[in-house]
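Holo prediction. Input below; ligand is potassium ion.
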Amino acid sequence: MLEILTTEQMYDADRKTIEAGTPGDVLMENAGTAVVDEITSRWSPRSATVLCGPGNNGGDGFVIARLLRNAGWSVRLGLLCDVDKLTGDAALNAKRWDGAVERLSPALLVGAELIVDCLFGAGLARVIDGEIADLVHTVNAGNVPLIAVDVPTGVDGNTGEIRGVAIKANLTVTFCRAKPGHYLLPGRVLCGELVIRDIGIADQTVRDIRPTLMRNDPACWRAGIHWPDLDGHKYHRGHLLAVGGATMTGATRLVARAARRVGAGLLTVVAEPAALPVYASDSPGIMTAPIANLDELLKDCRHNAVVIGPGFGIGDETRSRIIQLLHYCRCTVLDADALTSFSEQPSTLFFAIQGPTVLTPHEGEFARLFPDIEGDKLTRARAAAKRSGATVLIKGADTVIAAPDGRAAISVINAPWLATAGSGDVLSGIIGGLMAQGMDMFDAACMAVWLHARAGADIGPGLIAEDIPKHLPVLLGELWRSLPK
Ligand SMILES: NC(=O)C1=CN([C@@H]2O[C@H](COP(=O)(O)OP(=O)(O)OC[C@H]3O[C@@H](n4cnc5c(N)ncnc54)[C@H](O)[C@@H]3O)[C@@H](O)[C@H]2O)[C@@H](O)CC1
Ligand SMILES: [K+]
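Structure of the complex:
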């Protein structure tokens, strides 16, 4: 269930399943049954109100109302339109509901101890306003469990954006596979707990749709990890050059710690001579070299990966260093100052990118480098990757990673503790360390985001950036032990 389907792809999967012989009303019955399962396993029978819209999301609501009543719940149902306006499976299930169909109004909420939101799902086509918007506000202001069916009403399934107003659910039950809007902010928060339930759509049907978007999970990139061979030596594990700042040395010290922990065979910090003792004294296992030698170092193909940007400074020197090093087509991570230095001339950077390159902007850096690219985070990451020829990783609570070939992944681990100084430097170091070992750039970016997020979630409150590299052996051990032996 790692694939994430757009609403259009989900409609396609529904259609193909129906064409292959499973009637639509069976899918709807399965959907309603799944929601009722999730509700009754969490809450004891009580007074529930089901809010139904004019489409199939409302159709699910009629199934849910019937099944909850059969389970001994007291149920009221409100419908947004006249019942004779319903069509297809929704109309069929309205006939199967023998309770009252009330007009949708705030009066329906009085005495409700649980509310089921079946107003709009995948078919949300425009901004919610007027009476429906007022109702959504009233529902959100209440203090009873709120269960959204498919997506919380008002959340755009493809983007996670709010169209007008949106329900803030405690639980969202969706079907077959998640949609981007379940994981992208603000949709991710509005969903509450997310449960994905099978409703009888075959895995092969999903595969046939060829989804290119995944939840970022080890299953997506585990096979691409370059574990050391029994008879291997450090030179087989790559030699990363971490280009450090002359004064802001902390950032590249974090890069170096992370890259070494994740397995880079050798690591050299390249910086102004005056700063080298600071780097050298941080850890006896690193090497140092003066930045004047960078070109010479890059001519030696054993130096196969570079991280530049954290703490390096913004300006002409940074730009020319980067253009110079990109010429060698080494695996490259460009972060922080490396990105901001190209704000005025981003196309110079994109033109120079030829080898495997990962850009790791936060939202501010992204806007400076791609000022004309707009839309939701996923759309923007994909457009930026296509334009730059690099893998683009937009950081945040809903980190998105996109490759130039169209593949993309969304991080689904909640780790708010990562919002701390130096955390991004560690991420760059992990990516660089993985690429130095030969991992594909997109896989390396995805794996790094996963390790980083898991470290954040595991360490929790009190986390500082220095803790993340130290936690990597635990997570790498977990991945290592999960390999089929
Ligand atoms: N066979 C299928 O396709 C299945 C569909 N299922 C359910 O069907 C849903 C999709 O059904 P639909 O495509 O009918 O879409 P929806 O039920 O989400 O809504 C479509 C209807 O809402 C109206 N509408 C859209 N935005 C509006 C707005 N802002 N204000 C007022 N009216 C608005 C549209 O004109 C249309 O009448 C899914 O979310 C899921 O819950 C499930 O039953 C599983 C099977
Ligand atoms: K809904």
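The chain has 20 helices and 17 strands. That is the main takeaway for now.
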